[in-house]
Amino acid sequence: MKLVVVGGGIAGLAAAHRAVEWSRELGQPLDLTLLEAADRLGGTIQTERRDGFLVECGPDSFLSEKPWALALCRRLGIEELLVRTDDRFRCTYVVLGGRLHPLPEGFQLLAPARLGPFLASGLFSWRGKLRMGLDLVLPRGGDPDESLGAFVRRRLGREALERVAQPLVAGIYTADPGVLSLAATMPRFLELERRERSIILAMWRAARRAPAEAAGSSGARWSLFVTFREGMEEMIRALASRLPPGAVRLKERVTDVTREGSRWRVTTAGGVRLEADQVILAPEAHQAARMIRYLDPSLALLLEEIPYASSATVTLAYRRADIPHPLDGFGFVVPQVERRPIIACTFSSVKYPGRAPEGQALLRVFMGGALDEAILERDDESLVATARAQLGELLGVSAEPLFSRVGRHVKAMPQYHVGHLTRIEAIEQRLRRHPGLALTGGAYRGVGIADCVRSGEEAALRLLESPGVHR
Ligand SMILES: Cc1cc2nc3c(=O)[nH]c(=O)nc-3n(C[C@H](O)[C@H](O)[C@H](O)COP(=O)(O)OP(=O)(O)OC[C@H]3O[C@@H](n4cnc5c(N)ncnc54)[C@H](O)[C@@H]3O)c2cc1C
Asked: Whose CA is nearest to atom 14 of ligand 1?
């Protein structure tokens, strides 16, 4: 059987690796080719070493709560290379009025799971706290596909949305909560409302059932995450090393995927033509759309319609002594209402071990996203200057950085707008007309790395275990 995987990000690699596992488990021969447009594997995942620092240009960690990435690490034998966040500094700060306020302990993304720290917090006004308390008595909503912004405003009020939900969501999804589908991104909160009506009550009950777990999950991006001692690319290297020699072909941009009788034909810009029994498409949805535009224009349109946002990371290395702030947290998020040109900053060398040499510090600033994409039009120098000016105002850093590194992620983050799940169902239905073809990646049912691993592995198994596969 000939299988072609298009795209060598985490989803494509997880799909290819699962196919190799499947062929070994069942003793089935597999002829695998993975075509990647870039000159490296990993897609959004990119780690660099510089002067003893470890710089992540893309994701810096993955969520261990969702089991698929961890399970893959175990199968790859790289679990012992993982490192945890340094939980002494689990606090996330929120910028308010130009100052950093700690997110109250136990605040779980949208609502407080612990009363004491919430009431004592200076992040919310008394009016805002009382409005959040209204959640205890408000009735259920009726919209099964409400925006996250509308949901939080309805249940918990404007302050909860503007000061916490919006900046945390911007940090995770680089998205505008006013159009982000709650059902597609955080269905847990919809389910809590459906089951228990009040979100706060539901979270208090859950915290009583599992206190340690609740204490550890204030602010999704910043807790329950793990990474690799040598950076996220460790996972990419391990996956690539398990593929058959010669299976990966870099600098091969796929232009067309068409049907030739009972087989598939995959064509690249360089003129390579591969025949295949099965094809897994793992690039961004807008790229997959272009590849299949002649095969199925309706499916291509559905894929094209998934919006993407662009973002940038600016990593800055400093001598620790040059940063007056105690850096006693994982970082800070910046609400849009603060009108600043950055969305978040991670104190990378505090959050994870081994990110900076002794006596030095590494900070990573996020910019752009759906609410401020225009900032990516600026050149690197200007992005670095903007990041430095913000760190000056918020952390008091005026020193020159030892070095800076800008990572650009153009149209890299899929946006799960209201209606996303309906579109994905339509895509999946349309795909059934094309046996032997699968789609995978962050565009469909989860943007996180763990979700992408699941998506890739499921795509491989769906194809390989479908009836009529040559064995
Ligand atoms: C700045 C940033 C930070 C993030 N942080 C986190 C985090 O901390 N934790 C987390 O879990 N998630 C994070 N995410 C999300 C996560 O990184 C991505 O959702 C995930 O890596 C996407 O993987 P993928 O394989 O679907 O796509 P990609 O990584 O985009 O890979 C797609 C691949 O397809 C290739 N390709 C495209 N077109 C073609 C073509 N025509 N022919 C051949 N190949 C092609 C591309 O070159 C690329 O290599 C972050 C995302 C961004 C942008």
From this structure: 59
> Beta strands 360-368 and 278-281: pairing type?
unpaired
Q: Which of 262, 132, 271 is nearest to 204 (CA)?
A: 132
Return phi, psi of residue 119, to 5°: -65, -35
> Average per-residue pLDDT in the chain?
94
Q: What are phi and psi of 457, to 5 degrees?
A: -65, -40
Show the tokens assigned to 226.
């793990």
Residue of the CA atom closest to atom 6 of ligand 1: 59
Does residue 5 surpass a pLDDT of 80? yes
Q: Distance (Å, rounded) from C-alpha 98 to C-alpha 390? A: 10
The helix-helix angle for 199-209 and 187-196 (nearest 10°) equals 100
* pTM of the predicted model as reported, rounded to 2 decimal places: 0.95
d(CA 9, CA 26): 26
The answer to whether the Cα torsion of 59, 390, 395, 53 is positive or negative is: positive
Give the binding-site residues of ligand 1, using a 6 Å CB cut-off: 6-12, 35-38, 43-45, 58-63, 253-254, 282-284, 287, 311, 313, 409, 412-413, 441-442, 447-449, 452
94-106 confidence digits (pLDDT tens) = 999 999 999 998 8
| Distance in Å, CA 439 to ligand 1 centroid | 14
Q: Residue written as tokens 């990573």? A: 364
CB 351 within 8 A of CB 89: yes
Distance CA 363, CA 385 (A): 14
Q: How many CB atoms lie within 10 A of CB 425?
A: 10
- What amino acid occupies position 47? T
Q: Residue 350: phi, psi to the nearest 5? A: -90, -40
- CA–CA gap between residue 220 and residue 87 (Å, rounded): 14
The maximal CA–CA distance of the chain, rounded, in angstroms, is 69
Q: Could you tell me the two tokens for 252?
A: 């091969």
Is pLDDT of 14 > 80?
yes
Residue for token digits 């995942």?
45
Nearest CA to ligand 1 atom 22: 442
At 301-318, the pLDDT tens digits run 999 999 999 999 999 999
